[in-house]
Write a structure and sequence with these properties.
The chain contains 7 helices and 11 strands. With 351 residues, it is of the alpha+beta class. Keywords: Nucleus, Ribosome biogenesis.
């Protein structure tokens, strides 16, 4: 049998078009075309929310409430006290976070909160003392909001006037605001955060929006931020602002103890002065003291009658004594008139 020869098909080769022959893109789009909407998650803010060892149960519950309100947060285990704050920048870099919120406890009493921009460790970072903490479970308020919904941020008018408050406002906006189209967020706006500046402190409240005409109902949590310092770096750098009215909680407790001690010292001094000025002799008895010695009411009545008679007799003066006193006064007046006349006569003779 002879071999069959199969003819191979020739492969058509693509022609290489030179670059100069590519048609140029239109410089302007026609006005009839609709602009495509970008439905992507563009603002990729991630906040690392964690605490250092040594916070109390109430502080831990506050941190849990803040985590529920921020779907764009990243959790982290407790930080050891032996580590420095500069390690937080490395932790944020490993977690792909560009913001950090650190809760730091002191003596199981005081709570400090750090807010920092850790993107490239450029800062700034702010330190706050948290006061008057009330968690959601503790308040039991009537307000409620959808988990993961986006909030509105309302700021006091002073946040646009005072320089350091302008910086804190921008830090709050980038930290607390939920990015649009975040995977864990809901496309609803049903609550509002209010930041009010009063008494050199920032008051945080969370309200549910009931209606479009401004009806609100508080949800919680609520706390007060007392700003301590603002640093130019992320947990590092020099302090660019410091609160002149800030007094540490330990100093306040020390002052209260000192005031209580002063009250005790004053009380002891009063006792010593009372002992020193106490009279040696007893006070003189009251009038008619002997009447209370006798238990018989008839005897006491007789004694009172006798004393009353004696007092009347002492007060009465006889007529002879009165006439004598009147005559003595008249004689003194006559003598004074005679002496005055004699003196006048002597003056006339000399003249």
């Amino acid at each position: 049998m002879g071999r069959k020869f199969i003819k191979k098909k020739k492969v058509e080769q693509l022609e290489i078009v030179p670059l100069d022959e590519n048609p140029p893109l239109p410089s302007q789009r026609p006005s009839d075309e609709v602009v495509p909407k970008k439905e992507k998650w563009i603002n990729k803010q991630r906040v690392l929310v964690f605490a250092a060892r040594g916070i109390s149960h109430r502080d831990r519950h506050l941190m849990r409430d803040i985590k529920t309100l921020m779907p764009h947060h990243r959790p982290e285990s407790k930080m050891e006290r032996s580590k420095t704050l500069a390690v937080v920048n490395e932790m944020c870099e490993m977690k792909h976070c560009n913001k950090a919120m650190l809760f730091e406890g002191r003596r199981k009493r005081d709570l400090y909160m750090w807010l920092a921009n850790t993107a490239g460790a450029t800062g700034p970072s702010a330190k706050f003392l948290i006061e008057n903490i009330h968690t959601m479970a503790e308040l039991k308020l009537t307000g409620n909001c959808l988990r993961g919904s986006r909030p509105l941020l309302s700021f006091d008018a002073k946040f646009d006037e005072v320089p350091h408050l302008k910086l804190l406002k921008e830090l709050f906006v980038q930290t607390f605001s939920v990015p649009n189209h975040h995977p864990k967020s809901q496309p609803f706006i049903d609550h509002v955060y209010t930041f009010t500046y009063l008494d050199n402190r920032i008051w945080f409240r969370n309200f549910q929006i009931l209606s479009e005409d401004g009806g609100l109902s508080e949800v919680g949590p609520r706390y007060v931020m007392n700003p301590v310092k603002i640093f130019d770096g992320s947990f590092t750098g020099k302090a660019i602002w410091e609160n002149p009215d800030y007094v540490s909680p330990s100093k306040q407790r020390q002052m209260l103890k000192k005031a209580a001690k002063d009250r005790y010292v004053n009380r002891v001094e009063q006792k010593v002065q009372q002992e020193a000025t106490r009279p040696v002799k007893a006070y003189e008895g009251i009038e008619n003291e002997e009447l209370f010695d006798d238990e018989d009411p008839l005897e006491t009545a007789k004694l009172l009658a006798l004393k009353a008679k004696k007092q009347l007799e002492q007060k009465k003066t006889p007529k002879s004594a009165l006439t004598k006193k009147i005559k003595d006064k008249q004689m003194e007046a006559v003598k004074q008139v005679i002496e005055q006349r004699k003196a006048r006569v002597k003056r006339e003779k000399k003249v």
